[in-house]
Every structure is written in structure tokens, then in C-alpha cells.
Amino acid sequence: MSRVLVVGASVGGSTAANVLRDLGLETVLLERDLNYVKPCGGAVPPLAFREWHLPESLIDRKVTVAVVCSPRHYSEFPVASSHPSPETDYIAMVRRERFDRYIRERAVEKGAELIEGKLERLEVGPRGVRAYYEDKRQRTHAIEADAVIGADGAYSAVARALGLERLPMAVAYQERIRLPEHLMAHWETRAALYLGDDVSPDLYAWVFPKYDHVAAGIGAGAGKTQHARQLLQNLKHKLRDQLAGGVSVKFEAHHLPMHPRKHLSYDRVALIGDAAGLVQQTSGEGIYWAMKSGDMAARAIAKHLDAPTAVHLRQAYDRPWWRAYRPTYWFLALLQRISYNNDWQREVFAEMCDDRDVQRLTFDSYLNKRIEPAPWTVQMKIAGHWLSTAVRKWFELRHTSADVQVQGA
Ligand SMILES: Cc1cc2nc3c(=O)[nH]c(=O)nc-3n(C[C@H](O)[C@H](O)[C@H](O)COP(=O)(O)OP(=O)(O)OC[C@H]3O[C@@H](n4cnc5c(N)ncnc54)[C@H](O)[C@@H]3O)c2cc1C
Question: In terms of domains, do 224 and 154 share one?
Fold first, then answer.
């Protein structure tokens, strides 16, 4: 029987392993550290639960109110798409330690073989792949497979073994803070994004609610990563009233790739999730994309197991991927460039969040993972609103000094 090796048993790799087992393929899941918890805000669109039949018991909180806060503007609005429904219009908040474990264990129940070991080297030949991994006792083992899915994240050893370049990275730094019940009530169904040089010079900072704590974090792009700790301190200072009395329970930091790779597939190897650079630039969202790319790569490999060449895998995985999602990646990369980089952009962005049509379009694309062009009347209205806001904010910023305020507690 043909065998597929999946390297990395986090969301992307474990989803791929589930699909491979559903398709009847022998599957080996290699994970460096089974106790590893991926640093993550854990915001997931409910679509992921429907697509991969995940139980709602994995959801800590359903966020139904979104906050966007720039240095001068506070916008609070419901998580509502063009067809609002309580069944689908929320952001699911999960803890990765539970979420990833569930998907991984389900793959094992379906028959995937789980090995704890760190991939060291990969030899790709005309008849198959030989992978060398080191176990916890630093003994080296070899494993043979017909194809490999590289699901080993931002520092991918699989990509390195293929001789691929390191992707440009941002860093995300997060603290989990357990709050007294009366303060937790404020975050019950609310998630907030903060914009500003003091908390994130080129991305955003966030507070996401979890089961009994909030995750407060910051993102910093290339060249700014050395300031990450200070930016997080600034965020906590800004939110001192909402976080007062909180107990810090965990610090987490990790890199996020900021650009997709030119190719997702190579001879006998497909890269998915962070290893392929499939994080969205504006939001740093990567969970759904790791799962979806894992699903699609697994199906592409199953289709071409007799000859999993780069040409075949690109036809079956890269092309359908970019056909479906290129507009989303393109649009969100553009949004990042025009929204987060200086106070003028941030003020325009935050104020545009009050626009009901902008909210609808944002949640249509986030919740359904599709960018549907709005009717031209709506596009014209948004363009006019953006233009007038941009001009007004430009004059306002020339004549006033920054007045950093946080409201809403
Ligand atoms: C602080 C932070 C907050 C974030 N918040 C969100 C959010 O709210 N929502 C969202 O959608 N995304 C978020 N992201 C992004 C998201 O975490 C990633 O995009 C997602 O985890 C990618 O999944 P993956 O399966 O591709 O890789 P990863 O989750 O990075 O998993 C890679 C796996 O491979 C294993 N591995 C690595 N090297 C080897 C090796 N040599 N051999 C064997 N195994 C190996 C690792 O141990 C790990 O289990 C956040 C990221 C960060 C850093």
C-alpha cells in the first residue's frame, strides 16, 4: 500500500492526516514534540467546524462583537455578514492545546500512525522519499514514503531540505492573562484589535477572550521584532483598567510567515499552512488556511500517488488553491499596506469600520472565505466614504495632536 508521511501534527498536518485516512491511505504523522502548544490567538471561523465536522465543545467563546481601536477612534460593531444568523455569524475562540489535540487524536483513531520525532533530513528520489528523524533519545531513524506533506510550520525543516529560501517573517508575542470574573464579563463575547505605533508599528495588537482568561498580543513586522516585549507592555498599560488584577499565566511568541511561497508543490512533496507561507497578511489568520491547504494537498497526493511529480501536484493542488483564493490574498495584502502603517491610515481604517457595508463585506469574506464583489452602487458608496474620510483625517491629523484613548470597559 502507498504511504504518505505528514511532518508536523498541528492543525494543518493533523487535518491532512484525517483526509488521507478517509481516502484509505497509509499515513504516518511525525511530530517533534507531542506536548508542544502552538502560540496562537485561537480565532477560528465557524466554517472550519462545519467543513471538518469538529464539535462545538472545542469552542471556548463565541465572539459576536468586534472592536477596532485606533489612537483617536473607537469602533464597536456586531459580527454580522450579509445574511446574519446566530448559527454562523460569530468568531470561535479556541485554545490550541485542545483544538490541535482533538484533530490529531481523531486522525490516530482513523488509523494514522503517530511518531514523536524531529525531521532532520529528507532524500527525494525517483521511487520515493526517505526521511530521517531523531527521537527523544536522540537516536536517528529512517522512514520511507511515497510522498510527504510538509506541515511543520514557519521554520519548516521540509522546506529547508528542499533548499527553499526562508520566508519574510513577522513576530507575534502574546500573554495569557487570567482575569477576575467581573472583568472577564466585559470580554465574554467581545474581541478587540488595537492600532498604533505604540502597540504595533505595522500590524495590530489584540485581546481575544478564552475560557477563563484573555490572550493579549501584538504583531510586529520584519525589522521591528526586537521591540515586541515593549509593545506588549504598552498594550497592557493602555488596557490597565480592563486588565487590572489579572494574573499572567503564560507568555508565547512565534514567527509568522508574511508571504506565500512561489510554489506549494515539488516532486513528491506538498507544503501546507505556515510552511507554505499561507498566513493572511492583514489578520495573521493561519488556522483555517493550514487546515484547508492540508485538506487540498492530501486529496492532490491521493489523486496522483502513482506519479506525485511537481507537475501533477501543482495541477491538482497549487492551481485550484490560487484559483479559489488569490483574490483573498491579494485583497488582504493590499489592505495591510493601506491600513496599518501610519496614524493617518489607521484612523481612516478604524473609522471605515463604522460603515455597515464595510462590516458586511469584511464578515462575508472572513466567515465564508470567499470575496464576493459587492454591487457597484455599494462599491461606489464605500469608495466615496473612504475618500472623504481620508481627506478629512488628513486635515484633522495636521491640526491636532495624538490623544490616545481606550474606551469600552
Ligand atoms: C501569537 C500568534 C497568534 C496567532 N493567532 C491566530 C489566530 O487567532 N487565528 C488564526 O487563524 N491564526 C493565528 N495565528 C497563526 C496560526 O497559529 C498559524 O498560521 C497556524 O498554527 C499554522 O498551522 P500549521 O499547521 O501550518 O503549523 P504550526 O501550527 O506552526 O505547526 C507546525 C507543527 O510542526 C511541528 N514541527 C516543526 N518542525 C518539525 C520537525 N522538524 N519535525 C517534526 N515536527 C516538526 C511543530 O512542533 C508543530 O506542531 C497566530 C500565530 C501566532 C504566532
Answer: no
Give the strand pairing for 91-93 and 61-63. Answer: antiparallel
Q: What is the CATH classification number for the domain harbouring 151?
A: 3.50.50.60
| C-alpha closest to that of 283 among 359, 206, 351, 355 | 206
Residues of the chain with pLDDT below 50 are: 403-409
Q: Is 331 inside a domain boundary?
A: no
Residues with CB under 6 Å of ligand 1 are 7-13, 30-33, 36, 38-43, 118-119, 151-153, 157, 172, 174, 217, 252, 254, 256, 273-275, 279, 284-288, 290
Whole-number pLDDT of residue 409 = 37
Residues 36 and 115 in one domain: yes
Are 191 and 80 members of one domain? yes
Residue holding cell 506541515?
Answer: 151
Exposed/middle/buried for residue 175 (C-beta within 10 Å: 0-12, 13-18, 19+): buried
For residue 216, give its domain range.
60-93+168-258+340-409
pLDDT in tens, 287-335: 999 999 999 999 999 999 999 999 999 999 999 999 999 988 988 888 8
Q: Is residue 229 part of a domain?
A: yes
CA gap 378, 159 in Å, rounded:
43
